[in-house]
Write a structure and sequence with these properties.
alpha+beta, Multidrug-efflux Transporter 1 Regulator Bmrr, Chain A, GyrI-like
Length: 158
């Protein structure tokens, strides 16, 4: 698995905000909101592209466990700076930041191994400090139940 550090400019996402554990999100909340987002795509003006962004924002708490504790999930589209959110959606701004990034290849159900590598081995080997969020980009390669699935992961760094 090849990870590299990149700097991305500030960007904005319009979509749904879901407060849930990973288990609840994966048990259906994520799929429901992904389907709703797709149905309402045309309401989101000034979309940069059709790639879906799944962002996870974590509390900066030493006892936090993403597999058991509730945290914020945002699922939406990247939009141009002057965008507004349709009713029942939010606009979330992300500042310019450095990220460690890599591409997960394989079933989405195996994504934990890629996150474990980035948050465990890669962070401990490089000495970088983490910020409170990460995100995935689901583009034309996103096929969650197929072995050829690819998801780009970005973990924010201090």
């Amino acid at each position: 698995m090849e990870a590299k550090v990149v700097t991305l400019p500030a960007f904005q996402v319009v979509g749904y905000k879901i407060e849930a554990t990973v288990e609840a999100f994966e048990a259906g909340l994520g799929k429901i909101h992904h389907e709703q987002l797709h149905k309402r795509k045309e309401e989101i003006q000034l979309r940069k592209n059709d790639n879906v962004i799944l962002m996870q924002i974590y509390p900066m708490d030493a006892d936090f466990n993403p597999k058991e504790d509730v945290f914020t999930h945002l699922i939406g589209y990247e939009v141009l700076a002057d965008s507004a959110a349709p009713p029942d959606m939010i606009l979330h701004a992300v500042k310019e930041s450095q990220y460690v990034t890599c591409t997960h290849k394989g079933f989405e159900s195996e994504l934990d191994a890629t996150y474990d590598y980035l948050y465990g081995q890669w962070i401990s080997e490089t000495g970088y400090e983490l910020k409170d969020y990460d995100f995935e980009i689901w583009d034309e390669r996103y096929q969650p139940d197929h072995p050829n699935n690819e998801i780009d992961l970005f973990v924010a760094l201090q």
